[in-house]
Amino acid sequence: MTNNDWLGQDNRYLADAGNGHRLHPDVLAAFLSMQDAASADGIDCQLVSAYRSFDRQVAIWNRKWRGGTTLYDASGQPLNFAELSDNDKLVAILTWSAMPGGSRHHWGTDIDVYDRQRVKAWGQPFELVDSEYRDDGPCAPLSHWLDIHAGEFGFYRPFNRFTGGVATERWHLSHRATATGFEQLRNQAALEQAIHAADLAGKAALLQSLSAFYPRYVLNKGIP
Questions:
Q1: pLDDT tens digits, residue range 173-203?
Q2: What is the mean pLDDT of residues 96-106?
Q3: The dihedral formed by the CA atoms of 185, 89, 193 and 16, expressed in degrees to the nearest 10
Q4: What InterPro entries does the annotation carry (predicted)?
């Protein structure tokens, strides 16, 4: 593998996971096995998101930076975009979305999942937020099932606890064995070069803070 692989700029190895989703072949097999087991227990585990390219992450970032979608604080409360400084916007975006090149979704090893049938029966707009995966949320049974069984298929939650980096994402699963190789490739120098070359809104502000934000958000070490 090369830097292009972990940065999301090369996807030659991906396999079709259906409905427009793509995954690393080893992860696809594990996901399908997990999906079958969940189905046997009455859980409709489906993909919300799988592989995302560097360019796709740029589009998501640019829309958020320019105010095209609501930004939230770490507790999930909406922020007033007009009142945010550049640093405020960086923190708000990075709490819930990765910078281009820094997303685990670039590898084909990580997935976002939901219970499609329960969400459909719920009949309300689905926003992929924490409350939907807890208490009486439509995906709470799925979340509980994953607590017990995800590890049997090699998956874990890389964002299971908020420490000042990425927010808690109970829907986000990573295939540990396959993701490890990509994790070991990550380095700030290659990421900085990729961001420099990208048509990225807020690029100057991001690059200025990259030394602090790389460990905090990309490596999800949070705030010491």
A1: 999 999 999 999 999 999 999 999 999 999 9
A2: 97
A3: 50
A4: DD-CPase-like (IPR052179), VanY-like_core_dom (IPR003709), Zn_M74/Hedgehog-like (IPR009045)
Contact 132, 197 (CB under 8 A): no
Give me the chain's average pLDDT, please: 96
Phi, psi of 15 (to 5 degrees): -115, 150
Q: Let me know if residue 88 belongs to a domain.
A: yes
- Asked whether residue 224 is assigned to any structural domain, the reply reads no
Distance CA 155, CA 168 (A): 16
What is the DSSP track for 136-197?
A: TSTTHHHHHHHHHHGGGGTEE-TTSS-SSSSPP-TTEEEEHHHHHHHHHH--HHHHHHHHHH
**What value, to the nearest 5°, has the Cα angle with vertex 158 and ends 152 and 163?**
140
**Structural domain range at position 104:** 3-218
Whether 223 maps to a domain, the answer reads no
pLDDT attached to residue 116:
98
Using CA atoms, how far residue 81 sits from 58, 60, 124, in Å, is 19, 16, 25
Q: How far is CA 190 from CA 5, 86, 88, 185, in A?
A: 11, 23, 25, 10
210: domain CATH number is 3.30.1380.10
Domain count across the chain: 1
Q: What is the pTM of this model?
A: 0.95
**pLDDT value of residue 76:** 85
* Other beta carbons less than 10 A from residue 150's beta carbon: 20
Per-residue pLDDT at 10 exceeds 90: no
